[in-house]
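Curious: why these numbers?
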Amino acid sequence: MPYSKFILSKAVDDFQLTIIEGDRFLPEVTPVTPSSLLRDTLKETLPWAIAVSTEKARFEGIINPVLLEVKRQIKGQISVFSGEEFTVQPEVDLTGYVDFLISRSPEQLFIKAPAVVLVEAKKEDLKPALGQCLAEMVAVQRFNQQKQQPISTIYGRVTSGTVWRFLKLVGQTVTIDLTDYPLPPVEQILGKLVWMVQNG
């Protein structure tokens, strides 16, 4: 079963997770000033992606440029994967493709541990994406353990490109920040993403 078949209740039940709803778990992070490349790109692609309003347009026009800017801000010391197959444990349905995955390794030819951040993109309503994102976060947690590079916290986010919601997985506990963070402005989202990659 691919990740996309998971709803939130199934992910929680299958992986015996505890949910904490509503808490803002990120500290106040410094907004990150985007490069002129990202500023110019979003000036052109943001109105286009909103007008076209398909998931693919939002992937290409908003989300991917923002994640590549995170890589740029961290001087290329991470890798960003898009639409990559990420099969970890087929026997418990942790199989399929992830929209976006960030690893702390600069290796770009394949996913290398430790993976730290998952991004699940949806065109509009973010709630249905929470279960899928959570299943992918569990897969990342187990992938890192299999590769003997476990990390304490896995971060996830679901986004339409213009609205971002954040999740955190520590052990068997997932915290879902029920605040929707807008883009624009991009500075706040960049700050949070950079912080997550560096502190996951």
